[in-house]
Write a structure and sequence with these properties.
The complex is a heterodimer.
Chain A: H1 2-8, H2 14-25, H3 27-38, H4 43-74, E1 77-79, E2 83-84, H5 92-102, H6 128-141, E3 148-150, E4 153-154, H7 158-167, E5 177-183, E6 193-196, E7 202-204, E8 210-213, E9 220-224, E10 231-234, E11 241-245, H8 265-268, H9 302-312, E12 326-334, E13 340-347, H10 351-363, E14 374-380
Helix pairs in contact in A: 2-3, 4-5, 4-6
Chain B: H1 3-7, H2 11-21, H3 24-46, H4 49-63, H5 75-93, H6 110-117, H7 126-134, H8 137-148, H9 153-160, H10 164-186
Helix pairs in contact in B: 2-3, 3-4, 3-5, 7-10, 8-10
The chains are: A alpha+beta, B mainly alpha.
Chain lengths: 382, 187
Amino acid sequence: MNLLQYIKGIRNGKEINRLEREAMKDPLMADALDGFDKVAGNHEQRIKKMRTEILYKTRQGNKHILRYCSIAASILLITGIGGYFLLNDNQPAKENIAKELILPETKQPEIKQPETEQPEVKQPPKKPLLVQANVNKEKEQDSTPLSYVRKEVAVVNETIDTDKSKVMPPQKQRGKITGIVVDSDGIPLPGAAVIYSGTNTGVSSNQDGFFELPESTENEIMVDLIGYERVKLAVDTNRTMLVAMKEESAMLEDVTVVAFGTQKKENVIGSVTTQIKKDENVTDSVSTKTKKNVKSNPVIGKKEYQKYLKTNIVMPQSENCKGKKGAVKLIFSVNAAGRPVNIRVKKSLCPEADKESVRLLEQGPDWTPGNREIEIEVKFKF
Amino acid sequence: MNRKQTESLSDEDLLDKYKNSGDTEYFGILYNRYIPLLYGVCLKYFADADKSQDAVMQIFENIFPKILQYEVKTFRTWIYSVAKNHCLQTLRKAKNEVYVDFNLEIMESDEILNLLEEESGEERNAVLMQCIDKLPDKQQNTIRRFFMEKMSYQDIVDSDGYTVNQVKSYIQNGKRNLKICIEKNNK
């Protein structure tokens, strides 16, 4: 699509001319081009992110109904490993309908039915066709009783993990697993290896980050991708699993394995730097786990920031710096106004290069406010 | 759902598929087609990437539950007006009075466009060519560059040293003058 070229900032060539001529006849196109001319930024990434989210939402839309039915049918609800058990369904009506339709089929008298906290609102189905179609599908799949793990949000972190996994009853899973692998910004990651832990059964995520694993009795999957931290999480066949991977360079924080829509902002933010230094001075009585750790990022995005550094750097000509090659490392904080403050040189190259790095940072684009120290590298090649 | 197949489907086909099958992913695919355009429109109104992104997602949330209740004949024009209205409403709510109705812009000279778009230099409308010759230099130059040599605005900026805004206004004025000239000659 040529528009994407335009969005990337390309303004030359016949294809762009074609787009510009098209805009003369199409007000929607004209407005859009004006918009992209008006605001600079990493629009491509935002668009990717939105597209992933929309696709996820609309796929989830189909799955929603399936999920409610399956819960009703199986009755058994188990909290996942280290997970929070949430029951904040927005669509109570649908669940109740599903229950009514399915309940006579269930054959698990020995299992107690946990009370759900749903308001007993009974409404006629708004889309009878839709519900019916999906219920039928579900019935086929559910000819035998099944236990289900329901995880709305699973924040896997290693400390909690070990405690609770012992309490967990063994689970049997059936059916294939589908999911999507994304980075901390929600951008799909192709080529991630998704395997059942401890086996050789696995697939890799496709171009759009999606994967589909064949059915297995394994309880855990492991997702690996070079440059990202390994993610392990419990199998969930009830929904499209969302696997959010974190770049390896960042400090060991909680791995973010979060469902869309409930992901905490501080977990979503990636980092521009090759290394992020966690604030070592945090000696609050509050543990660092509960403290909000907000990482700063360049407002214009990492890539644009790198570009800014590259295009604005002035190579020092002094004797001191002659023949020196390498990088200056700076540490700084970001204040509420988004400006870098308290800038210190962590690794010096030569006085002039250090000075130039600080100048670039001080005069450079804004950062998103945060409460963690950031470390950046400014590379010098003479 | 075969994704490759959906690529060739028209907007309206996708809507029909959604309507008939109840599979919401069809609507997701359709909306995704428009995300770059809608996001661009929002950028124009808000001049802010975050706000625009929010708006694009909000528009989706607004129409997704009830899209099937609307009678949408042409999705493109429909979604465009939905997006514009959403942006204007948001701006009004924020009491941000600074907005311009962009729609007053030039979409009028279609016939000139059509004439200019025609390929095959030999048979190009003789009157048109005469009229182009009569245009002031800068207008003439940019019109030729843009419509015949198929150079983008930026290409023209690069080669002729005008600013983008100059290029746009030369083309716009050139088109208007051409229209006047052609109408005169056709009488």
